[in-house]
Amino acid sequence: MNVRTAFVAAPLLVFAYGVIRILDGLDGSRGPGLAWTAGHLAFLAALALFVPIFWEMRRMAGRNAVATVSAALGTAGLLALTAQFAIDIVIGFMSADHDAMGVWFDRVQAVPGVSFVVYDGVPLLFFAAQFALVLQLAVAGRVRAWTPVLVMADLLLPFFEKDLIPLGALFLLVSFAPLARRSVAAVPTAPATPAAAVSR
To answer: What keywords sit in the KW lines (predicted)?
Structure first.
């Protein structure tokens, strides 16, 4: 999958995660089960696509120090979120019901350092980097001024209500559309050599 496709696929996978999460909660609890696993796998796939996205945004921003640090910190946050969602999937498989999952989560988060690195601290770098990189692109004139606003809306909506994740993902898709068009994969190829020139 090229970078241009990643800019579109990542928000769509986050959207899928948000919708599956809502459906999973219709019975009053989330996980364990097929919906829990499928939703988390969708988000893990989105996270994988953010690796090339971050570094392509760094390239678009001019490969300067600020963009490089932003991409690096975003990747660190991405890895922490990957660990978080992988733990969620494993706990889902190990648990007979939702209450059993809670017991396992308590055990995992009680391990020194895990809460900060995997849940409460380092993952925030993933979200901060998204905004920082898009803001740099807006300042450089690579994207419209409203793009960072939509990205910020996508980042903040889940903190108010996680059921708004699909809406935030749509905001992100609109924000990433111009980046997809400007990505390296979107650069047009050189025109074909005329037949007359070939014959000479």
So the answer is: Membrane, Transmembrane, Transmembrane helix
Mean pLDDT on 96-106? 93
> What is the pLDDT averaged over residues 172-196?
66
**Whole-number Å distance between alpha carbons of 23 and 90:** 20
Residue 197's identity, in one-letter code, is: A
Q: At residue 197, does pLDDT exceed 70?
A: no
CB 94 within 8 A of CB 43: no
